[in-house]
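Dig into this one:

. . .
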Amino acid sequence: METLLVERRDGVVTVTLNRPAKKNAINGRMWRELIEVFDSVEEDPDDRVLVLTGAGDGFCSGADLTDTENAENLRGGGVGGALRQMRVVGRAALRLHELHVPTIAAVNGVAAGAGCNLALGCDLIIASDRARFSEIFSQRALSVDFGGSWVLPRLVGLHKAKELVFFADIIDAAEAERIGLVNRVVPHEELAVTAAAWAERLAKLPPIQLSISKRLLNQSTSVSMSDALEFEDVAQSMNFASADTAEAMLAFMQKREPRFTGR
């Protein structure tokens, strides 16, 4: 791929945004390559976890508005061209959100605009102590995109989300952790090791059951308690019929680590 580095090892897919000279700003090619990678992970049963990070000293500075393809569609193609391009952006965000495998953002530097929401769209976020976050859109006379209007209030609450979006302030990693924007902040030199350790732990867990739990949690704010319980009941019934649940029970009785196969 031209804009991404993709490494697969022991069920972990590590995707590195690879435009370091631009702080990994997303051009037209990268949008399409992200969708391609997300689709491939969704279809490959050997892929258990996805890790997103950035090359160099930045995670992602957002959409590259100087990119020829982006500029032609967004500013030179009228409303129709801009809408076509934004639907590509929306498709990438939805693909990430709907991935059945757990996703981790390892934020190594600036995460701004769509780059910020790319990180927030992951299930878990580990930030370097050098990381910075900003919903920069209003400073560019733009409204929030890449799913930020959906995910941000769920992470920090509606009023805090409005503050972050309206003022577009840059917040550091410590503040991001304090307000619940990220799961954990680690020293910069420990970021890759910590993300790899989390990914390794997730890759060893039962993939079907993780996928179901992820889906239940993602839909929790849009269903009633009654519906949530019904979904849980159906899901748990499926689990008890699976080979992995049987393996978990057997491993517990035999006092050994279970070996999950995704069946």
About this structure: The longest helix spans residues 78-98. DSSP finds eleven helices and ten strands in the chain.
